[in-house]
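Duplicate of #3305? Posting structure anyway:
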């Protein structure tokens, strides 16, 4: 049993924390670990009253999870982040001492830097898990946020190199990323889980879904939602996620437009937290009217019900270097609802998964001919709903895949090794 601090540079209420952080902490509790979560809350004093903080802390304590929160600072960006890193490192240092921590579990680079700095200034040296997730510096350059090979990129890469040396264990999202970061792991079996010459454990843990969220998805749910949306007798193609950056908004609209050309009854169901105006304009330019589309924001808990109304799903992401480390959560959600996926190659392990399981179609290119070809191949797949669900359960189930691999990593770190 380990005493662990999970460091997360997001707020507790954010969807990512609710769907990708807390569920994993609950899985780790199954091995009896004592867990504390450190979050950074935007506009902390405005969004949280003291009563709300107490209530949330008590709620988590009842689950056996402690919660510590610091304010998140947004501007000026680099200075604000540096300040948060400094305050976070001080907080982590204090928690190492007061909680006698065995493991620092850092989700991506900024929390890892907090943990590594804090550990440098304490006599007690807890093991550190670098939960890398993706290629963070490359994501920022690929999305056009940082200039390629600019000062920020080069600085973060130097820090990343140090963090890779400091960490005692790693989590990454894809097998493809593992071969890039730990090429020597190709000679070891996945069960061994060792990724470098120092035999530090590495676990590949894709973005998983809690299948309990999808328990209610059935024929009745589908019929009720289709009736609610007014799409009885129509083919519904869905997209979940953001617009812009490395998410291919224009290409997604082109694919949906090609689907409508092929079948005028096609209905576009878009679930996004992004402002709807851009996608709405693009779809109207491609012939969609009010009765042919719905672009809306829905709570995470309602996504399965909406997806149950669909017949197929779209997942187009810019095939850049950083996306070799990407495991799109939307794909796991699509498959859990029995939806075949139209995707583009070059994204994490998506190519291999779709080819191996037959749960979708890979585009040959981003042009009208390729879209039409993909849609025709999609029809030829036939009814693959159960295959999609089984694939989701085998590959992305929170308990059987994500939770078990996290627990395995913790056991490897604590097995026979004491914290100094």
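Output from current build:
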């Amino acid at each position: 049993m380990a005493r662990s601090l999970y460091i997360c540079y997001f707020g507790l209420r954010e969807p990512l924390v609710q769907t990708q952080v807390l569920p994993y902490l609950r899985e780790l509790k199954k091995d009896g670990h004592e867990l504390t979560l450190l979050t950074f809350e935007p506009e902390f004093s405005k969004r949280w009253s003291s009563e709300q903080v107490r209530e949330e802390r008590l709620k988590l304590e009842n689950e056996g999870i402690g919660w510590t929160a610091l304010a998140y600072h947004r501007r000026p960006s680099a200075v604000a982040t540096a300040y948060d890193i400094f305050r976070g490192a001080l907080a982590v240092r204090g928690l190492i001492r007061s909680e006698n921590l065995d493991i620092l579990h850092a989700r991506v680079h900024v929390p890892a830097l907090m943990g590594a700095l804090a550990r440098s200034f304490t006599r007690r040296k807890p093991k550190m898990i670098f939960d890398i997730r993706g290629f963070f510096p490359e994501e920022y350059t690929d999305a056009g946020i940082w200039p390629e090979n600019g000062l920020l990129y080069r600085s973060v890469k130097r820090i990343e190199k140090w963090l890779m040396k400091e960490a005692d264990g790693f989590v990454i999202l894809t097998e493809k990323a593992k071969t890039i970061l730990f090429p020597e792991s190709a000679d070891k079996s996945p069960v061994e889980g060792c990724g470098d010459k120092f035999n530090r454990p590495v676990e590949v843990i894709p973005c998983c879904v809690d299948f309990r969220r999808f328990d209610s998805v059935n024929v009745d749910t589908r019929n009720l939602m289709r009736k609610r949306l007014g799409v009885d007798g129509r083919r519904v193609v869905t997209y979940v996620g953001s617009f812009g950056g490395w998410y291919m908004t224009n290409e997604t609209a082109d694919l949906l437009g090609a689907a409508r050309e092929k079948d005028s009854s096609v209905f576009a169901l878009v679930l996004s937290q992004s402002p709807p105006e851009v996608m709405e304009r693009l779809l109207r330019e491609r012939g969609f009217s009010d009765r042919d589309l719905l672009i809306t924001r829905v709570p995470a808990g309602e996504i399965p019900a909406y997806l149950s109304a669909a017949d197929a799903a779209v997942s187009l992401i810019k095939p850049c270097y950083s996306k070799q480390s990407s495991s799109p959560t939307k794909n796991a959600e699509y498959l859990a609802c029995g939806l075949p996926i139209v995707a583009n190659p070059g994204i994490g392990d998506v190519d291999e998964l779709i080819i191996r399981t037959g749960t979708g179609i890979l585009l040959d290119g981003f042009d009208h001919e390729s879209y039409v070809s993909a849609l025709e191949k999609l029809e030829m797949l036939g009814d693959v709903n159960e295959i999609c669900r089984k694939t989701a359960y085998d590959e992305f189930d929170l308990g059987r895949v994500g939770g078990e691999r996290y627990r395995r990593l913790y056991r490897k770190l604590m097995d026979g090794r004491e914290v100094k």
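Confirmed duplicate; merging threads. The chain has two domains: 3-208+398-414, 211-395. The CA atoms of residues 39 and 193 lie 29 Å apart.
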